[in-house]
């Protein structure tokens, strides 16, 4: 699916680039053609104006018709001092009321096209310049590629988002299916183990073995219950987070080396209540503690700070391990990412899914420094 999504992105990008590139070249060709025609039209209009102003010319019908046909190209005439003498196809009412209107238009036209020059055959010092702008058609043709670029870009973005949503939907279904199948497969041997534990209880002298086996069987039952809840909406209930977290810290403390110290800072509070799914929440804390243990490689300290502000509860899990490089901070929650030689890289990915999707909270790397440690933060609604 990832390869298909990548291929679709590549194909869409290439198609979009080809469409836009072809459109730009063709639009430029059409725009240049229209610009040449407009220049020719302005030259004809200038010749017609001078023909009308010539007292020796008896034919005024054709020049007048040429000028009349030019109803879309704005033209400003200036004298040898570059002062405005007359204009056509501009807003006359605005020109009368706004003294700077024609000056601004003249400045704009100078930056667009070279003027058409007319020299008086009777007086070489007398010269007229005809500055002109673009028609609405030429402007539309020139800006059309930008509009098309926006449309094509929007189409590509919408398509990629749709493919990405489809990919995530399939991914979620695979995750849920694998989790439920795992829970189903665990159910049978766990039930069998519970039966064997009950049989061992009936034989004297196995008390210590039975006690430890019960703990492990309960643990397996908890793991099965966690996997069974993936893919379905868990039931949230008000829970004292301090009790849940202390329980997980005690569990991990027994399985860590004596060179690792654990501490839970509650800011003097006796209880912090939040709506959570206890099995899934325990799974998140367990994953964070396990990652902290792996990062420290046998020695160091782990602290869990819990405090509440306004309507949120903040849980910071800090270790004194090797830290996370800047380039990997944004990747730690992606499925399959791991810096360990062993493991699938799914713990933090599942934790993020549990917190963000099922509890509508947040989990992120609050701070990390290579060689000094990392702090993960979990934010839950009170």
How would you characterize this protein structure?
- With 382 residues, the protein is α+β, with helices and mostly antiparallel strands.
- It has two domains: 2-140, no CATH class; 233-381, 2-Layer Sandwich (Heat Shock Protein 90), CATH 3.30.565.10.
- The protein is 57% helix and 18% strand.
- It is built from ten helices and eleven strands.
Tertiary shape: rod-shaped
| Rg computed from alpha carbons, rounded to a whole number of angstroms | 39 Å
Would you tell me the structural class of the helices and strands? alpha+beta
Characterize the biggest β-sheet: 5 strands, mixed
Secondary-structure element pattern, one letter each: HHEEHHEEHHEHEEHEEHHEE
- State the CATH architecture of the largest domain: 2-Layer Sandwich
CATH T-level topology of the largest domain: Heat Shock Protein 90
Estimate the helix proportion, in percent. 55-70%
Model regions low in confidence, pLDDT < 50 over at least 5 residues = none
The count of helical stretches stands at 10
- CATH homologous superfamily identity of the largest domain: Histidine kinase-like ATPase, C-terminal domain
Q: What's the total count of β strands?
A: 11
Strand order of the largest sheet: 6-8-9-11-10
Q: Which whole number gives the mean pLDDT?
A: 81
Distance between the termini: 38 Å
CATH level 1 class label of the largest domain: Alpha Beta
């Amino acid at each position: 699916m990832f390869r298909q999504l990548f291929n679709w992105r590549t194909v869409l990008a290439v198609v979009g680039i080809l469409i836009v590139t072809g459109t730009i070249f063709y639009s430029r060709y059409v725009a240049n053609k229209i610009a040449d025609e407009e220049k020719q039209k302005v030259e004809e209009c200038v010749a017609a104006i001078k023909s009308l102003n010539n007292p020796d010319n008896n034919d005024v019908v054709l020049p007048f018709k040429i000028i009349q046909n030019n109803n879309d190209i704005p033209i400003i005439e200036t004298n040898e001092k570059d002062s405005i003498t007359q204009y056509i196809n501009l807003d006359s009412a605005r020109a009368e009321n706004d003294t700077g209107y024609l000056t601004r238009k003249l400045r704009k036209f100078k930056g667009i096209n070279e003027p058409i020059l007319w020299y008086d055959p009777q007086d070489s010092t007398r010269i007229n310049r005809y500055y002109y702008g673009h028609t609405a058609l030429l402007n539309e043709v020139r800006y059309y590629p930008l509009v098309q670029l926006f449309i094509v870009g929007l189409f590509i973005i919408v398509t990629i988002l749709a493919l990405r949503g489809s990919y995530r939907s399939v991914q979620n279904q695979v995750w849920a299916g694998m989790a439920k199948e795992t829970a189903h497969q665990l159910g049978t041997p766990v039930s069998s183990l519970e039966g064997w534990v009950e049989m061992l209880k009936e034989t004297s002298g196995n008390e210590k073995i039975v006690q430890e086996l019960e703990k492990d069987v309960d643990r397996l039952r908890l793991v099965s219950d966690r996997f069974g809840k993936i893919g379905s909406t868990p039931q949230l209930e008000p829970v004292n987070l301090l009790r849940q977290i202390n329980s997980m810290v005690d569990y991990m403390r027994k399985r860590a080396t004596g060179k690792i110290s654990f501490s839970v800072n509650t800011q003097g509070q006796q209880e912090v209540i939040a709506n959570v799914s206890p099995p899934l929440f325990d799974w998140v804390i367990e994953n964070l503690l396990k990652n902290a243990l792996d990062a420290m490689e046998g020695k160091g300290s782990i602290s869990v700070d819990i405090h509440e502000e306004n309507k949120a509860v903040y849980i910071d899990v800090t270790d004194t391990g090797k830290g996370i490089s800047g380039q990997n901070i944004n990747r730690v929650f992606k499925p399959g990412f791991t810096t360990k030689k062993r493991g699938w890289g799914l713990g933090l990915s599942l934790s993020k899914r549990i917190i963000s999707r099922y509890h509508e909270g947040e989990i992120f790397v609050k701070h990390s420094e290579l060689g000094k440690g990392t702090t993960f933060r979990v934010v839950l609604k009170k």
